[in-house]
Amino acid sequence: LKNNWPPSGRVVDSLTNQEAMKQLVTLFTVAFATGIRADVGPEENPAQVCKNETNFTEKKSEELNWDTYPDDPVIREFTFCLSKKLGYINTNGDLQNGAIKKMLLLDYEDDDDLVDKIINKCSVQKKTPRETTFELYRCLYNGAYKYTKDSF
What we know:
Blueprint: H1 18-34, H2 46-54, H3 58-63, H4 73-86, H5 97-107, H6 112-122, H7 129-143
Helix pairs in contact: 1-2, 2-4, 4-7, 5-6
Keywords: Secreted, Signal
GO molecular function: odorant binding
InterPro entries: PBP/GOBP (IPR006170), PBP_GOBP_sf (IPR036728)
């Protein structure tokens, strides 16, 4: 699938700015949750399909604006569904680091080394595919404001 994030231009000029990174991750999560892709209809948009399939409401989307990534069954299902549709996890439940890296490079200004370090930290297989994708998103969300070249 073609990834259209960010929707227009660079969202963050400097990854060392904690507030900008917090905003980036919030925008990233909410963009997927609300279906920001303009090149497909709502019935084809992965975020919209997953939102409908998992009952991911606007209220759930707003919960992701806090400083934590809440452990909620609906959010777990949504992240699992979205990860499958975007190719971040395969049908066997294995994370697809190449697809994850491609997405991260858009937000980390093509910094291969930093993205590889983030993937090494966040892309960890868990007991179930749902737990794996939830923990991937939670790691990215919780760590994104602190992941800089000096973080590792």
